[in-house]
Amino acid sequence: MWVFLNDAFLSIVADRDNADRLLVRVRFAGDIVAVFAEAEVSETADADYRYRARLPRQRVADALAQQALALTATNFKASVRERWRHDLYLQVWALMEQEQRRRSSRTGGSSDKQAE
Question: 46-71: per-residue pLDDT in tens?
């Protein structure tokens, strides 16, 4: 799962070596510790996600729940302080908005059903 936070972008997947853990992966140094200060982060220069940490599933769930409970922003993009990160997120937003318009025009925009 991808999680976009105003100070971190996380890619979270199952840890294939331990069902009780999740693998939190990031592209940018510091993004893991922004959410999991205690994490032991490893770096692999040639991996698709350069930085990784294996964390207990419950710890990840608790951290994500805490992010939701602490949320005060009424506009996510406006809450992103780092300009470079804001600009990247805006590109993702624009791609998703473009696809929303494309799919809505195909389906008439009145259905919650997934357009294929």
Answer: 999 999 999 999 999 999 999 999 99
Exposure letters 83-98 (e unless 16+ CB within 10 A, then b): eebeebbeeeeeeeee
State how far the Cα of 102 lies from the Cα of 72, in Å rounded to an integer: 31
Structure tokens at 96: 């998703």
Cβ density class 33-66: b for 16+ within 10 Å, e for less:
bbbbeebebeeeeeeebbbbbebeeeebeebbee
Question: How much is the mean pLDDT over the chain?
Answer: 94
Residue 107's pLDDT is what? Answer: 74
- Domains of the chain, residue spans: 1-71, 73-107
